[in-house]
Amino acid sequence: AWTSAVPIDAPDQVLTFGDDGTARLWDPTTGEQLMVFDHGVSGGLGIWQAMLSDDGRRVVTTGSSDGIVRTWDAGSGDELWSIDGLLSGFAGITVDISDDGERVAIVSASTQIVDADTGREITTLASPDLVRAAKFSPDGRSLATKSQHNAVRLWDAGSGKLLATMEPSPAIRRKPTMRLEMFPKCQPVPCVAVAVAPEIDW
Fold first, then answer.
1. Does residue 114 contact residue 80 with C-beta atoms inside 8 Å?
2. Residue 112 needs a FRET pair 20 to 30 A away by CA distance; which of 41, 60, 71, 133 works?
């Protein structure tokens, strides 16, 4: 069995998840369990990713093999909406929540942005290759994606319009990457940083 904790800066709550198909919210001061979110287990595998919104109102979970994204009310534990039938293009389905808690980016075989309250699709990105990670800008207006070949693209999070493409050098093109981050104080568009893993033979 395994359990993973979601890193949060100066958290009032800590979110953990594991192969039992549940995500759990904890008080980091007392160790008290505050809420359990039962995503479910498929094929003997549990949750691939769980994320707590910055405002503490929403929890999003994705399954390792069930093709389902679920969004929960962090206070009541009620499931608000789910999207199923998603196909993973690389491994598990990954998500990112905008800092204002209004939008969720879902990375599967395609990449879509949905309303965090209803699950209604806002836009689907027309990426020319498979996306492996996505990250909202701090103001929520842009979304950065990283492709399977480490190309980084910047999109308008409302319209889905492609704003910029950053192709990697040949030396980085086939390396796995560890993190995709966005920074707010760059013009005319937010800065994007990709941390590259050490040399790995493929």
1. no
2. 41
Nearest-angstrom CA–CA distance, 32 and 29: 8
d(CA 48, CA 94): 8
- Cis ω before 188 (30° cut-off from 0): yes
C-alpha 110, offset from chain centre: 13
Q: Are 56 and 47 in contact (CB under 8 A)?
A: no
Any bridge partners for residue 104, and if so which? 97, 114
Rounded CA separation 102/199 (Å):
38
The strand pairing partners of 64, in sequence order, are none
In this structure, what DSSP letter does residue 170 have?
A: H
The 10s digit of each residue's pLDDT in 93-112 is 899 999 999 999 999 888 99
101, amino acid identity: G
Q: Report CA 103 to chain centroid distance, whole Å.
A: 11
Q: How many residues does the chain have?
A: 202
Burial zone of 143 (CB within 10 Å; 0-12 exposed, 13-18 middle, 19+ buried): buried
Q: What percent of the chain has pLDDT over 90?
A: 49
> What pLDDT does 187 receive?
47
Residue among 157, 23, 145, 25 at smallest CA distance from 100: 157
> Alpha-carbon distance 153 to 131, whole Å?
10
Taking the C-alpha atoms of residue 179 and residue 65, their distance in angstroms, rounded to an integer, is 23
Q: How many CB atoms lie within 10 A of CB 102?
A: 17
